[in-house]
Amino acid sequence: MIGYLTLILSCQLLGELAAQALGLPVPGPVLGMAILFAFLLVRGHVPEALASTSEGLLRNMSLLFVPAGTGIIMHSALLSEALLPLSLAVALSTSLAIVITALMMRWLGKAETHD
Amino acid sequence: MTNLAQTWVYLSASPLFHLTLTLVAFQAASWVFEKGGRNPLLNPVLGAVALVVAVLALTGTDYLTYFQGAQFVHFLLGPATVALAIPLYRQWHHVRASWLAIGASMLTGSLAAVASAVAVLWVAGSREALMASIAPKSVTAPVAMGIAKELGGLPSLTAVLVIVSGIFGAMFGPLLLNLVGVKDWRARGLAIGTASHGIGTARALQVNETAGAFSGLAMGLNALATALLLPILWGLIF
């Protein structure tokens, strides 16, 4: 458990270092995900203990967004300046992105799996 | 009463109280979510944030004080993002089989998100800084904030818009996907991850592992694509 937690943190640290050193526009943890993924490809399977460690993190991932979400209290003035257009923009664009991505994937994915 | 006040002063200065508050609020919101038959409209992130905001307002606590306790939870976002490699690895055969469809769908959805958000603000006559702040809002927060800064937006406003987009997608995404009749878990996950980054991915993982893996993948790809392409596109238009 501790061993694999160390592996996960090391991947994140490597990701942070790589992002900084190479000036990449992607955050460290996303690069860390790519590094851990590469490790798994080389390893050829997911070790049991790594699976259970990551499951503990991922099962409760929603919780981890609560502190950042609470940050909304710092921006009440900015938000009230343009509350209606901002809410409308978020609602419309998020809905459109979801519908368009899903329909495109259904259309293109079908074409690929049928050949 | 003096004792109570002293205890409060002691507690509010220690990270334990706000850390516990975060967990208790999330437990309560999750309980409501479960009791409500896991209805996405009872999103636990939204419920927990509302509870915490109410307690902070009642006790007159500012965000920085709260964050001293909450940072321990916040920190785990990094390792959790890294851990998304595991569902991705398990679904890799699906991803490899349709990488072109995945890339094209994610890019189209990402472009639709940026264009429609900016268009609404443009029609409303908002200033350019607001348009630059909302443009990257479908991307995971650290990347979106960096892009907003580059475009001349307000990174802290972007962070809020990112969170709201995530919660909105987690709440209404399943409903919209049912409406257009998309049942394929790969397409559903890809759509949620493209529009609603980590918050959508957290929700997708609870429902189906394939959806979760595709959502995590879309989140990473969209972060990369938006960071590379949006500044160029922005320079052409504004």
Main features:
heterodimer, A: 6 helices, B: 238 residues, mainly alpha, 13 helices, 0% strand
SSE layout:
The complex is a heterodimer of chains A (115) and B (238).
Chain A lengths: L1 H21 L5 H16 L4 H12 L6 H5 L5 H6 L1 H31 L2
Helix pairs in contact in A: 1-2
Chain B lengths: L1 H12 L1 H21 L8 H16 L3 H13 L1 H7 L1 H6 L1 H6 L1 H25 L4 H7 L6 H11 L3 H25 L5 H23 L1 H29 L1
Helix pairs in contact in B: 2-3, 2-4, 8-9, 8-12, 8-13, 9-10, 10-11, 10-13, 11-12, 12-13
Summarize this entry quickly.
The complex is a heterodimer of chains A (115) and B (238). Chain A has 115 residues and is mainly α. Chain A is 79% helix and 0% strand.
Textual characterization of the structure:
The complex is a heterodimer of chains A (115) and B (238). With 115 residues, chain A is mainly alpha-helical. Chain A folds into 2 domains: 64 residues; 35 residues. Helices cover 79% and strands 0% of the residues of chain A. With 238 residues, chain B is mainly alpha-helical. Chain B has 2 domains: 74 residues, no CATH class; 151 residues, no CATH class. The termini of chain B are far apart. Classes of the chains: A mainly alpha (115), B mainly alpha (238).
